[in-house]
Amino acid sequence: MKAQTGAGPRHGWHKQPDGEACDNPGMDPARKRTIRLVFALSAVLLLATALIWTSFNAATEARTPSQVLEQPAEPGRSYELTGKVVEGSIERDGEALRFAVRDRVGSASVPVSYSGVVPDPFREGREVIVSGALAEDTFVAERDSLVTKCPSKFTNAEEPA
Question: How many whole angstroms separate alpha carbon 146 and alpha carbon 155?
């Protein structure tokens, strides 16, 4: 066995299993920091990409009644229906609520079947958004998916006819 020469283990000298001394200073600290930084930034970029991907894929498509009537959605696919509640169309039957939604600026309308919590501002002429799917000629809404938009105080009030 050879005697260890040099300044000792504190200065980069290490013993090999066979007892020989070798100079193995390890990785340069600056290079080590660069590699860690690259891995950390890669992980952040990967997570950000996954978040963006899932947010766009989870979004539901909003449609107006005229869009629903022109091009029906794929069977089993859920989407949001948005428009105004048609005057005189609200019918309550126990927990079931039936009403029609029309385009904001038009006359096309779709009947809606809904059950669940009804927001306080829900009434005829109010703009609503409801999630669900079209079954035959009726939009069957998901339970508790009805959202009522409140009129803005910054828009011109409609004048009575």
Answer: 23
Residue 6 placed within a domain: no
- In angstroms, the Cα distances linking 152 to 34, 62, 139 are 53, 20, 27
Domain-located, residue 132: yes
Domain that holds residue 88: 62-148
Q: Please state, in angstroms and rounded to a whole number, the distance separating the CA atoms of residues 13 and 25.
A: 8
Query: Does residue 66 sit in the same domain as residue 143?
Result: yes
| Interacting residues of 138 by C-beta distance below 8 A, sequence separation 6+ | 110, 111, 112, 113
pLDDT tens-place string over residues 12-25: 555 555 655 555 55
Report the predicted TM-score, pTM, of the whole model to 2 decimal places: 0.58
Give the chain's domain count: 2
Distances (CA, A) of 48 to 35, 51, 54: 20, 5, 10
As a whole number of angstroms, the distance between CA 76 and CA 27 comes to: 57
